[in-house]
Design brief:
heterodimer, A: mainly alpha, B: alpha/beta, 34% helix, ABC transporter ATP-binding protein (chain B), ABC_transporter_ATP-binding (chain B), transport (chain B)
């Protein structure tokens, strides 16, 4: 498929985003950030003296696709209302649910993300681009599953940060956590730029959310991509269970902190 | 039945020093003894800051008493570490909403349906229809009125048939008609489910008269003037209130 058509498709998505009011995804902010990502990627490329094997067109597509996804899957998670609950002695409002806080937040979060029109918009463009690069349905589905598990890891790690932050420091620690996930998820640049190692991807619980699924759009990386997606998926599922167990433990051991 | 025996509670202040010592503050509650029988809500009256909400949190198991004990049905003490206990609690607060601000009322129904296995959707829809809230179901909690929010919370909470009702000033800020509707639904619930018990705190003394069977004042950190509601009028309780707190 012609590159022009791909950019036209992305442009159309932008137009829809611009014309539709949304409380959290302001299209101008989104645009500025993607521009920032593009400039950052170019800067890294310029300093490195090359694109580290990346095609410049891929960097453009990556910049256009990564940040909107990160916005959708991260900001919707530990959103304002959760912070309000943590901070305003209203924790019992959610702690009274029999399933436990972690489950409620996870269901709530997944519900918010996967009913979001921007997410569908993003998935449509993603599927369109992946098919244009010649990928089959299974690879695309696995990559989408990666996004789901990766985003669960983001929310669970976010809850853990809140639980274990000393009282009064949770906001600053949470911001630091988000800065880290910004980098480790690959929202700012392809993680492959700093490491091509499979182990690096598998040990990173957040790589599954952005960097790995977007690697499908990288025309220079052909060999071992399906394997990479599969390994990262398995790795991130292991991370998911680990985070989940830690969160459930913290729910009981740390709850008194929010009531005192 | 809930039995509260000789309960004493004070908040703990944690020193942020290296040793992280804990210092007990002045007791909020001391020597509290009450028995809340099945089929009744205990009315608790007291000025702002007297410890009414703290007592409701003790009943829910949010806090544990420093001394004494609270026992439900002679079997266990309330604790939020016990999921079975959580299923029994129906908490409605006028001041604190339990609704998530970013999901619609309909989505709350889906959430509750999944969280509470006893959630009865047809019963819930019946109540929602009575409250004229059906057109609001697609809206976010932030875009409905305060009265509608309370009515929705009452309907969604009672729809999973909680056995312990904790009503913390449920009629605060409501118009007389809404107050009447809320009293009616709570009384109907109590007569339909005779094994339900709980507590009602309110500054509206008519709530106490019309909903609870016995009441007490929270004065100087303990319960005083415990009395039955039979043949009482709000004016009688108001006179008791003025007599008790007016001299302070």
């Amino acid at each position: 498929m012609e590159t022009g058509k791909i950019y036209k498709g992305i442009g159309l998505t932008f137009k829809i985003m611009k014309d539709t009011p949304s409380g959290y995804m302001h299209w101008k902010v989104l645009f500025y950030y993607m521009l920032l990502i593009l400039i950052t990627d170019c800067f890294i490329w310029y300093n490195a003296g090359s694109l580290n094997g990346y095609d410049w067109k891929f960097l453009v597509v990556y910049s256009l696709m990564s940040y909107p996804l990160w916005i959708i899957i991260s900001l919707k998670g530990l959103g304002k209302e959760q912070i309000d609950l943590f901070e305003s002695s209203k924790w019992h409002a959610v702690d009274l649910f029999p399933s436990g806080v972690t489950n409620v937040f996870l269901i709530h979060y997944l519900g918010k993300v996967y009913k979001d029109k921007w997410f569908y918009c993003w998935v449509t463009v993603y599927v369109f681009l992946s098919v244009s690069h010649g990928y089959g349905l299974i690879t695309i589905l696995l990559a989408l599953l990666c996004i789901m598990i990766g985003s669960c890891n983001l929310i669970l790690a976010g809850i853990l940060t809140r639980y274990y932050s000393p009282k009064g420091y949770s906001n600053i620690l949470s911001s630091m956590f988000y800065s880290l996930t910004w980098i480790f998820s690959g929202a700012v640049f392809p993680l492959g730029m700093i490491s091509n190692s499979f182990l690096f991807y598998i040990l990173n619980p957040f790589g599954a959310s952005i960097s790995v699924p977007l690697s499908v759009l990288d025309p220079t990386m052909v060999e071992g991509r399906d394997q990479l997606i599969l390994y990262v998926l398995v790795g991130s599922i292991v991370w998911f269970f680990l985070f989940f167990k830690l969160c459930r433990g913290a729910e009981n051991s740390q709850r008194e902190k929010f009531y005192s | 039945m809930i039995e509260v025996s000789n309960v004493r509670f004070s908040y703990i202040k944690k020193n942020r020093s290296f040793l992280k010592t804990k210092v007990e503050q002045i007791p909020i509650l001391k020597g509290v003894n009450i028995t809340i029988n099945k089929g009744e809500l205990f009315g608790l009256i007291g000025p702002n800051g007297s410890g009414k909400t703290t007592f409701t949190k003790l009943l829910m198991g949010v806090y544990q008493p420093n001394e004494g004990e609270i026992v439900y049905d002679n079997t266990f003490s309330p604790s939020l570490k016990n999921p079975k206990w959580k299923k029994l609690i129906g908490w409605i607060s006028g001041a604190n909403s339990r609704l998530f601000s970013t999901i619609t009322l309909n989505e709350h129904v889906v959430l509750y349906r999944n969280l509470y296995e006893d959630f009865n959707e047809s019963w819930f829809m019946e109540k929602i229809e009575e409250f004229n809230l059906i057109p609001r179901l697609d809206q976010l909690p932030t875009s409905i009125s305060f009265g509608e929010r309370i009515k929705f919370e009452i309907a969604i909470t009672l729809a999973y048939f909680p056995k312990v009702l904790i009503l913390d000033e449920p009629t605060v800020g409501l118009d007389p008609l809404a107050i009447k509707e809320i009293r009616q639904i709570i009384n109907e619930y109590l007569s339909d489910f005779p094994d339900v018990c709980g507590i009602l705190t309110s500054h509206n003394l008519n709530d106490i008269v019309e909903i609870s069977k016995q009441y007490a004042f929270l004065h100087k950190n303990t319960f005083v003037g415990m009395d039955q509601n039979q043949d009482k009028y709000a004016n009688d309780i108001e006179n008791q209130y003025i007599h008790l707190y007016g001299g302070n």
